[in-house]
Automatic annotation (TrEMBL):
Gene: Fadd
The protein's name in its UniProt record: FAS-associated death domain protein
Alphabetized GO MF terms: caspase binding; death receptor binding; protein-macromolecule adaptor activity
GO cellular component, one term: cytoplasm
InterPro entries for this protein: DEATH-like_dom_sf, Death_dom, DED_dom, FADD
Amino acid sequence: MDPFLTLLHSFSTSLSGSELSSLKFLCRGKIGKRKLELVESGGELFSILLEQQLITSAEVSFLEGLLVSIKREDLVSQLKQFVEEGEVKAPEDEPDVHEKPIEVVCENVGRDWKMLMRKLGLSEVKMDRIVTANPFSLQEQVVQSLREWQKWKGKDAKVTDLIKALRDCNMNLVADRVEQ
């Protein structure tokens, strides 16, 4: 699944009716009036913008301008995070995988995994992508989020940081099991 499309879908679902109307108005110079009248969702508007190549995963300045205009700084922030994290990392930056702690965390964390990931510094955008990619498996969401954290941190992904984050989230039993 294309991460950029996932991001646009996330944006679409968070837009109110009045925000969609504002976006349609702002696009009048770029999209024909008839096409705009048929648009009933953010997804439909984004599809037209993609078709006309006004937005692409590599060129988001038009989209950013639209979001700034409707005062959705939260979405602008997510978009900027997406652009920053979209860079391909070199193979030597790949982390050493600590499978045992991942296994222990996955078996014991449960629905509070997002709180843990926030303590570890993983972005909301990445967590949303993980949930979208694995909607029916809580355990897979935890596994993928921990792997994403390891990939992001590279060699700096330390088990001690994971234990500290678990303790900060009051998950002391899980932290104790990871230490063992």
